[in-house]
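FW: tagging you since you asked about this chain on Friday. Here's the raw sequence from the shared folder, copied in full. Didn't touch anything.
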Amino acid sequence: MSKKISGSEYPLAKIFSSEFDYVIPSYQRPYAWTVDESSELFDDLLDFHRQEQEDGYFLGSIVIIKEESNPYSEVIDGQQRLTTLTILLAAITSQLNGSLKTDFENYIREPGRVSQGLAPKPRLALRERDREFFSNHIQSLKFDDLLAIDPETFSNEAQHNIQINSKLLLNRLHSSFSGDEKQLCGFGSFIVQRCFLVAVSTPSQKSAFRVFSVMNSRGLDLLPTDIIKADVIGNIPKENQDEYTERWEDMEVQAGRNGFNDLFSHIRMIYAKEKAKKAILDEFKSHVLTEISSSESLIGEVLEPYTEAFMVARKEQYVSTMNAHEVNILLKWLNRIDNSDWLPPAILFLSKKHNDPAYVLWFFEKLERLAACLHVCAKNINQRIERYAQVLLELQEEHSLEVPIKSIELTDSEKEEMREALDGQIYALTARRRNYLILRLDSFLSDGAATYDPSVLTIEHVLPQTIRAGSAWLSQWSKEDERKAWVHRIANLVPLTQKRKSQAQNYDFNKKKNAYFGGKKGVSSYVLTTQVLNTETWTPQTIQSRQNNLLNILADKWQLGTI
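HL: got it, structure written out here
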C-alpha cells in the first residue's frame, strides 16, 4: 500500500469513473446542501458554459482515503459537492434518450465489467441511512417517484434536501434548455469534460484529517491583502512609505486580519458590481486598482473611509446625536442575515453620507427591508448580487434625503412575492430564515425593545405536526387537510428559549402552553409566545385571526401594502 499523500486535478469524467468508488462514512454529517448552494452551483456552471468556450471550470477539491491500486475511496471532505453533482448529472441523464442516456448514465452508475472484476453499482454511496434512498431515486433516475413523496414523510433532513435540490435542478434544466436534447447534451459534456476537481488521496484516516485540517485552516497564511499591500506600498515614494504602512496596518488592526481581507471583497463588489469570476487578488487588481490614480489615493480616499464604514456596519456602532440607536438596531438585524451581500451598499453609503443622520436612518430602514425580502424569499447569491448592484450603481450618483435613491425601494412584484412568502409555509424555510423572520416579527411587536440570543432559540408548533389517535386536538382539528394547511404557517409558530421536549409536542393546548411555552415561571420573554399564553383556545378560527393580525403587522412595519 502506498504511504504517500497525492493530489491531482481530474475532469468529472475521470472523477465519476471506474477509478473511484466513493463511500460516505457513517460518521460524516448528513447531506446538507439546500437550494441556496445548489442554485448557486448551477448558475455558475451555466454562466461559465455560455460565456467561456475553451477554459476549464474549477470546482474545488475533495479529500479521500484511497489506496493507489484500489478504487475504494472513503470521502473525508467533498461529499456535498459529489452528491449535488451526482444529482445534477442524474437530472441531465433523465432528460436524454437512447445512446446519449446510456452514455451519461455511466457517470452515475458503474455498469460493471466481468473481465475487470467490476460489479454494477452506484459510483457514490451515501451514508448508510440515506444510501438506499439515494440509489433508488437519484441513481435509478426515478425523479417522478421522488418528487411525488410528501416531504412530511421523510425520515431525515438529508432526504428532504435531496428532493428539493432535485426539483430545483430539474426546473433549472427545463427553463434553460426547454427540452432541447442537443443543447442539454452540450451542457452535460461541458460538465464532465471541462469541470475539474482536485482529488487529494491519503492512505489513512489520520493523514486524511490532517490534510483536511490544513486545507481548512484559517491561520496566519499569506492573504491577498498582503500581496496587494506589497504592491501598493511599493509604489509610494520611499520617504512616505513608513507613514502609509502604519496607516495600512492601523486599518488591519481595526478590522482584524480576516475582516480586512473580507473588506477587500466588498470593495471589489462596489467597483465591479457583479459576482467575482476569478480570485480576489486578480479581481481587485482589475476592477479597483485600475480605477484609482495612485496608491496614496487608494489608502486615503478608499481604504480608510471604507474601513471606518465597514466597522460601523459590522459592529453596529453608528454615532450621531440623532437616530444612532435606531440605526444600530437596524444594523443588528442586517447582521443576523445569513449573508453579507448587503455590506457593499452599506459601506458605500456610510462612507459618503454618515454625517446626515436623517438620511442614514431612511437608508437603513430601506436596506434592512430589501435584505429581509431577499432573505425570506430565498434569493440565491447571483440574484442578490444583481439586485444590490442596482443600488450600488445609483449610490455613485448624486443623492440626498430630498432626492433619495430609488433602487433600494422594493418593487411592486418584490412586495407581492414577499407577502406570499410571509403567508406561506414558514417552518419549511431554512432554520436561519425562519428564525430571522420569527424574531423580527417579535421585535416589531415589542417596538424594538426586546433583545435576543439566537443561540438558545427554538421554534415550536402550537398545533402539533403530528396528532396521535385519541388526542384532545382532534376535537377541533379533525380535518387533516386543514391541519396541514396551518401547521407550518407563522401564526402556529412560537419562539422558545429552551430545547424541544419531544413528549410535550402532543400535549393538549392548555397543558402545552402552561407547562412548556411558559417555562418554569409561567412567562415568556417573547411577545409572540406570551400572546399564545394569553389565548384560551387554539381553533382554526383562532389561528386564522392571528395569521391576519401578524401579517398586517409585518406589512405595516415593512411597508408591503395590503396583505
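FW: The beta strands are 6-11, 21-23, 57-65, 72-77, 109-110, 121-122, 124-125, 195-202, 458-461, 493-496.
HL: agreed, and The longest helix spans residues 157-177.
FW: great, closing this out.
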